[in-house]
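My main concern about presentation is that the manuscript never shows what a single data entry looks like. The format is easy to grasp once an entry is in front of the reader. For illustration, here is how one protein appears when written out as sequence plus structure tokens:
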Amino acid sequence: MPTIALLDSSDARGDGWHRVIAPGGFEWWHFFVSQPAGDVRVIADFFYGNPFDPKYLRRYRDYRASPTQNAPPTPAEFPAVRLAIYEGNTCLLNTCARIEPAKFSAGDSELCFGESHIVRETGGWRLRISAETSVEMQLTPTITGPAGAIGSADYRWIVTAPLCEAHGTIRLPDRQIEIHGLAYHDHRYGVASPATAFSRWLRGCVLRPGASAAIELAIGQDTDHQQICRAVVAANGTVEPLEFTPSVQWQRRGLFGIPYPQAITIGHRLALCRPQRIEQSCDELTLNYDGFIDGMAAPALCQIADFDRMLG
């Protein structure tokens, strides 16, 4: 019997659209920008199937429970753009806009999410985000990712450009911020919702001149043992996945009941410690950490999603 491909795997390492059609599946382009002067950080996420949308997660849960009674939810129904801007420990903006499915389009070099765009150019990426504010950003890679994807057959994490130069403008209602800093870009896609396997999912990034690091820590359902811990360090022009077993010390009583790591150490190359909560909701938490790449200090920003609470 012929099978239906749940995604286009012809370019498994590429940064383009993989046409994920699997119920509960997703594709996610993530950009993190840091400007040391003024301590401004920007997170821009473009979703084809938002894996953090409670409506999408609940519809997928119901479909899995009764597939003959519920229509399968697909990524095409849930495109979205999320934008968060932080200054020090203050959140200036955090918004997530669902995009009408008809307003998503993908070409060879451009992804359109309504009025927001990702344009891939020879020298990097150009971003335009129209939300409650507007952001225009140019990213030029200084270190490019490894020739491969991290993950499994169901899930891919591509560290496309772990270190970039970033230049752009943020237009807030009351002021304008010029950006001249560093950036990180990765790309994830999967054929199932991460909420089916994990209760919590931490993603974080450390940036400093000449180096960066990214980490994800996924906690399995009904246990506090990390089921997935992956990290990548980019330094001296090379990108290296870290194969060391992580040491994770958990803070059990997080705000709103979301536990978070008090410290994470992966070998001698990457460490996060002394977390500070900068934003929280009932199901997501954003923290600043003191980060260290190869012993050199750099600030880190981490986000934790609690899928059990999203589905509650």
